Amino acid sequence: MSERLNYLFHQYFNKTETPAERDELMRLINTPGSEFEVQSLMEEVFTSEHFDIDPFAPGTRERMLNTVFEGTVENTVEERIIPLTQRLNKIIYIAAAAVLVLALSLGIYQYRSQKNKEALAATRPQPDVKPGGNKAVLTLANGAKIELNDAKNGKLVQQGNTAVVKLANGSVAYVAGNQSAGTSMINTMSTPRGGQYRLQLPDGTIVMLNAESSVSYPTAFTGKIRNVSITGEAYFEVAKDKKMPFIVTFGKQKVEVLGTHFDIRAYNEQPGKTTLLEGSVKISNGSQKQLLVPGQQAVYNTGAQKFDIKAVDTDDIVAWKNGLFVFDNTELDQVMLELARWYDIDIEYKGVKPQLNFTGLVKKNIPLSKALKILETTGGIKFTIAANKVIIEKK
């Protein structure tokens, strides 16, 4: 018999155990193969010189321990009448022993139940959030709205002489008819948090919208310029037309091109950024104008009232449309803002906000829990998903 188990059992029986000793006793009792030792210790208690009457009916203690080790516990104990001729102190002692044995049985059961609950909690699927995908709403000239992710492939609607078609690849294209016989209308495509979408304009220009963004455009380009406006972030591959410049408006800024690839980031929480991938663009803010060459990014400095120009890695800038988050010494707030848009979640900081920066790549097609695990590997931070919220705390 284990000397430690023997010691802890008698500590428990004499009510002199510490909380730590009680926990250790329960762990030892729940060790596979300990049943025989526990039953032997109970027998020892009731054959000791302390008393000569067992307060349990024959076999009760064994059944109690058997049911405990099987994972259940009896609600009642069979009574055995103790003759009144016995001395009162012995009756009290025996009753106390019975209570202790019952308490031990209940203790074993409760300990095991708690461990089972903990094991179940560890294996139970934790709350998670799926990544975003192709989601957008198309608002027509008359105010009608079409949920594009639910719409079937094929022709969606006719706008003037232009057919609006959902393609097999999930994007939407405007197929222009005879424009001289019709009028142009304004349509708007908007993506929600957790959405992005690809659009082909009537002139063949490709627009890729990031999450929580919008683009407004005519159903047919007529006149001397091609005008569109955006909010949020959009990537453009502009179809060349030297006779009709393409102009994108966001806030007070305008980007004018003939045919080129560029990205505009114009979310409200940050100054607008225009990044040129190929070709050339002219960007303006009121009287301030600036020409960009490929690899440059322009940010308007409201204090100095001029454009700040810097060289950037354009692959990183448009990584979002290629299924990646790219962080380059990015502050925690900005990282979480990107995740919040894509996974449509709320952010909550618990305690002191960690002052951390992140550098690396995270795929956009993985569940939120995996993305957060990648960030946690940097150390010093812990994320908890609660429904549609992420709680952030310092480790």
From TrEMBL:
<dbReference type="InterPro" id="IPR032508">
    <property type="entry name" value="FecR_C"/>
</dbReference>
<dbReference type="InterPro" id="IPR006860">
    <property type="entry name" value="FecR"/>
</dbReference>
<protein>
    <submittedName>
        <fullName>FecR family protein</fullName>
    </submittedName>
</protein>
<keyword id="KW-1133">Transmembrane helix</keyword>
<feature type="domain" description="Protein FecR C-terminal">
    <location>
        <begin position="325"/>
        <end position="392"/>
    </location>
</feature>
<feature type="transmembrane region" description="Helical">
    <location>
        <begin position="91"/>
        <end position="111"/>
    </location>
</feature>
<keyword id="KW-0812">Transmembrane</keyword>
<dbReference type="Pfam" id="PF04773">
    <property type="entry name" value="FecR"/>
</dbReference>
<dbReference type="Pfam" id="PF16344">
    <property type="entry name" value="FecR_C"/>
</dbReference>
<keyword id="KW-0472">Membrane</keyword>
<feature type="domain" description="FecR protein">
    <location>
        <begin position="188"/>
        <end position="282"/>
    </location>
</feature>
<dbReference type="GO" id="GO:0016989">
    <property type="term" value="F:sigma factor antagonist activity"/>
</dbReference>
<dbReference type="InterPro" id="IPR012373">
    <property type="entry name" value="Ferrdict_sens_TM"/>
</dbReference>
